[in-house]
Specification:
The protein is an alpha+beta fold and 88 residues long. It has one helix at residues 64-86; strands at 2-6, 9-23, 35-46, 51-55, 59-61. It has a 5-stranded antiparallel beta sheet, with no helix packed on it.
Length: 88
């Protein structure tokens, strides 16, 4: 779980969910044929305990800077180890 903000409101991110929606045929009066739309939503929990599915575009993770710094340190460490092995 990760802390995030949804439209400025604090929430806890639980997971990504793939959603499939089926659009009915609308061929009457020159409409479009039926189709399937797929998209991803985030399942989040707000401070009041309510749970919602929100667009992935609305999720802003609050710990991203810390995680990126941690990943960069790991990459530098890995890169240093691999460079040392090339000298052997």
């Amino acid at each position: 779980m990760r802390l995030c903000k949804i439209s400025g409101n604090k929430a806890v991110f639980h997971r990504w969910e793939n959603v499939t929606e089926y659009i009915q045929n609308q061929l009457e009066h020159g409409g479009q044929p039926g189709r399937t739309i797929r998209h991803i939503v985030a399942i989040v929990e707000y401070e009041d305990g309510s749970v919602a599915s929100v667009s992935e575009r609305d999720v802003v993770f609050m710990d991203s800077k810390r995680l990126f710094a941690k990943l960069e340190r790991r990459l530098e460490s890995w890169s240093t180890k691999n460079n040392d092995m090339e000298d052997i």
